[in-house]
Specification:
The structure holds two protein chains of two kinds. Helices cover 48% and strands 18% of the residues of chain A. Chain A is of the alpha/beta class. Chain B has a domain of 70 residues. The chains are: A alpha/beta, B mainly alpha. Chain A: This is Stage V sporulation protein AA.
Chain lengths: 207, 143
């Protein structure tokens, strides 16, 4: 009876530039024969080239072909994702502290301006004065007793929404920001799976 | 006013209120502030009570702004109201940046995935500073 191997591709792996991607890197392998697993793990699949930029897709069919080339008596069972995203990690260009401080200040000033324009846009000063009058029967020019707690509340509300104080204590669910980053990464992965994989689409003028 | 005119005015008022009310609810739903609060406090079961609290707030607010009552309460009641008011607006603002997908794109573009919390703080502090500046100083010169 033919030897059965189960191969499960990983979702995403990172390699160095010019690396030789082997089956062991991109997949988990299960079989009854330990020696066979070792042999399969060493199968070279792809040599990363500079022209690949930073994403290479290894397709399931490519893996099956490579395994059958080594031993065509094997019964290959693929499970899990049908491709692996290989991310080529080039030397990370350091994000300089100066640039970071600039971005920080940009967000700080921009956020301050945005809230001031919002207050004017909705005539909040008028509403606050009116509320002061409703509550106390007196009218004042600057109802700071309402407005200073309001200002601090703004910051607390933003932090609360993004769940940074209560992270450990209240719950271990991911924060909206983490979920959002995850969704964005998923969308990018979906895109590269289709667009960087030459096998996944065939156009009319292709041979 | 004839009966017809009264009916017409009632109809117009009711239709206007309906449109504004549905818009308000749609806004709250899109931004997802209430689900976020239930998730933070683990009170998902009470979500209907929260819905009614938003509705009651809208009705009380509408009544105050249209009828101009005067209550003669201590002015110190305004401090907790201001704080709650601020937290709510802060959550709306945070939710808006989330809906607009600002953060993931910013993090990817300039490659600061690990420092995103510090940038988030820039936004929060900017809001606090801008708001304090506005009320304490800026209004004297603008109005």
């Amino acid at each position: 009876m033919a030897n059965t191997v189960f191969i499960k591709l990983r979702h995403r792996v990172q390699v160095k530039p010019e690396a030789l991607v082997t089956l062991g890197q991109v997949a988990q392998i299960a079989a009854t024969d330990g020696g066979l697993i070792r042999r399969l793990k060493a199968i070279p699949l792809y040599r990363v080239q500079p022209s690949d930029k930073n994403i290479v897709i290894i397709d399931m069919m490519q893996v099956v072909r490579a395994v059958l080339d080594v031993d065509d008596s094997l019964d290959v069972q693929m499970v899990g994702p049908s491709q692996t995203i290989v991310e080529v990690l080039y030397e990370k260009r350091r994000f300089s502290t100066v640039a970071f401080i600039l971005v920080w200040l940009l967000l700080f000033v921009g956020s301050a301006m945005a809230i001031m324009n919002f207050h004017e846009d909705v005539s909040m000063q008028k509403v606050h004065r009116y509320l002061y009058e409703v509550m106390t029967g007196q009218s004042v020019d600057k109802p700071l007793l309402l407005q200073i707690p309001y200002s601090f509340g703004l910051g607390i509300g933003m932090v609360l929404f993004f769940n940074h104080w209560f992270r450990k204590r209240i719950n271990e669910e991911p924060s909206p920001l983490e979920v959002e980053m995850f969704n964005y990464q998923q969308a990018i992965d979906q895109y590269v799976i289709l667009h960087e994989n030459k096998e996944s689409m065939r156009q009319l003028d292709d041979a | 006013m004839t009966t017809l005119e009264i009916l017409l005015v009632v109809f117009v008022g009711f239709a206007g209120g309906l449109a504004v009310g549905t818009g308000f609810v749609a806004f709250l739903v899109v931004l997802g502030v209430i689900p976020r609060l239930t998730q933070l406090t683990k009170t998902v079961k009470r979500i209907h009570a929260y819905e009614w609290s938003a509705i009651a707030g809208a009705i009380v607010g509408g009544w105050i702004s249209l009828r101009h009552p005067v209550w003669q309460l201590s002015k110190y009641w305004l401090a907790p109201i201001g704080l709650l008011h601020g937290i709510f607006i802060g959550m709306l603002a945070a939710a808006l940046t989330e809906v607009l997908n600002v953060w993931p794109i910013l993090a990817k573009r300039i490659g600061v995935d690990d420092k995103i919390v510090i940038l988030l703080m820039a936004l929060a502090f900017g809001k606090v500073a801008g708001s304090l500046f506005h009320w304490v100083y800026f209004v004297d010169y603008f109005h």
